[in-house]
Structure formats: structure tokens, C-alpha cells
Amino acid sequence: MQLTVVIVGLGGICDQCGMKIQEGRFYRTRDGRTAGPLAARGGRSLGWEGRVEGFDGIQSWTGDGYFLPSCEQHSLDLVKRAQSSVGIAMDQMTLDDYRRGIAKLRNTF
Questions:
Q1: What is the pLDDT of residues 60-77, one digit of tens each?
Q2: What would the 3-class secondary structure string for the chain be?
């Protein structure tokens, strides 16, 4: 009998997606929140910082997307780049997009 061991990483943005965090971009967290725009914190070797929807203040991440100070799997880890709604019709938006504020309706009253 042969035993196979699979080691699963924490899923940092650079490790799994092959993406690199870029200055001024927005990203999705593990729990679906929007984070950004991100800025290099003291140079790329020290990580990134930016705002997260629903949280006050500035949050920080490592260079590969892990939320600081945990460096363990966390709901605020960055997992993918957020897509903008520019050029997307309202009827193509999902309810989750609307709840996250990607699609906004104007009050016409």
C-alpha cells in the first residue's frame, strides 16, 4: 500500500494564483471583502497596506497576501484581484457584487 501526503499551503495570492500585488490595485479577501487601494509599506520587502471594507484604519499584508500580523490562514488574506464594474451592465451583476458595493443604484427620489 502506498501513502500519498498532500501539503496544502495557506493560499497566498502569489503562491496559488501566480499574481503579484500591485500598487494602487484592489483585491478580494478570503471572506469576499474588497481591500485597497494597496500601497507598498516601506518598500516591497516589508509588505503592503490598505483599507478593507467594514474595518476602520489601515490593514497590512505580507508580500504574498497573508494578513499581518497573523501570517496564518485568515479571513482577510488576499486571494484575488477585484474586478471593476466598468463596462458591465447592471443585469450582469450578482447579488454578492451588489452587496459588496461593486454595483450601486442611484436614489432617484
A1: 998 888 898 766 788 999
A2: CCCCCCCCCCCCHHHHHCCCCCCCCCEEECCCCEECCCEECCCHHHCEEECECCCCCCEEECCCCCECCCCCCCCCCEEEECCCCCCCCHHHCCHHHHHCCCCCCCCCC
Mean pLDDT of 35-53: 83
What's the predicted TM-score (pTM) here? 0.61
Half-sphere exposure of 52 (CA within 13 A, CB side): 18
Q: How many C-beta atoms lie closer than 10 Å to residue 25's C-beta?
A: 16
Domains of the chain, by residue range, sit at 13-83+92-99
